[in-house]
Amino acid sequence: WGVLLGLRCSAIAGHRSGCCEYQVGLLLAASLTALWQSITEYNGGGILAMAGKNCVAIASDRRYGVQFQTMATDKNKLYKMHDKLYIGLAGLATDQATFHEKLKFRLSMYSLREERDIKPASFGKLVSTLLYERRFGPYFVEPVIAGLDSSNEPYLFASDFIGAPLIPDMDSNGFVVAGTSSEQLFGMCESMWRPGLEPEELFETISQCLLAGSDRDCLSGWGGTVHVICPDKVITRTLRGRMD
Fold first, then answer.
1. Percentage of the chain surpassing pLDDT 70?
2. Confidence check: pLDDT of 244 > 90
3. DSSP string of the chain?
4. pLDDT value at residue 219
5. What does the mean pLDDT of the chain come to?
């Protein structure tokens, strides 16, 4: 910030003296601002997952951007691992695609060897291990996992891009968030979530949290996608949000 302030002051001084330092200073300040932005914020987006009564929901926005420029409004950030397990990936879009393909390969090998679907808790450890083993050249993704275990109890998991796990207490904070709008989403979830939500109540709650949180972040938004995972079905709905 000190460097940016100095460049801004020199640019103003150059403008007053009528020289080209004004334009040069503004270009340098803009370049340093772009470099200062985290690479995980480059494409934008927000993801959250929320637990209910024998159900769990995961949601994401639909914006795909390059910094402040919106490139598409139909970006999928939620991926099905099996009928009762989904993962959402926030962060750099290219690393999202790479990491998703690596997860599909690992799950295929697991299914061939074990002849069963992976448990959500085991999948969380797999994701954490894959990220940590690349800690010196990491995938710039922030995963959010939502699933139901064999007894239909909800499982939530989130981590940073080197695999440090966050598993919330389902009785007091049954939600996890990730992405550029994580602070706004966290505040909305703290205000609106309560234990024991039924599937329709859970859908309404997570939808309102996603839309309200995304409206307060210029790097995410443009509607959303919600998956509500129940013991016998998965409810998938698309949300319409602000288109600006």
1. 84
2. no
3. -HHHHHHHHHHHHHHHHTSTHHHHHHHHHHHHHHHHS-GGGSS--EEEEEE-SS-EEEEEE--EEETTEEEES----EEEEETTEEEEEEE-HHHHHHHHHHHHHHHHHHHHHHSSPPPHHHHHHHHHHHHHTTTTS---EEEEEEEE-TT--EEEEEE-TT--EE---TTT--EEEEETTHHHHHHHHHHH--TT--HHHHHHHHHHHHHHHHTT-TTS-S-EEEEEE-SS-EEEEEE-----
4. 87
5. 86
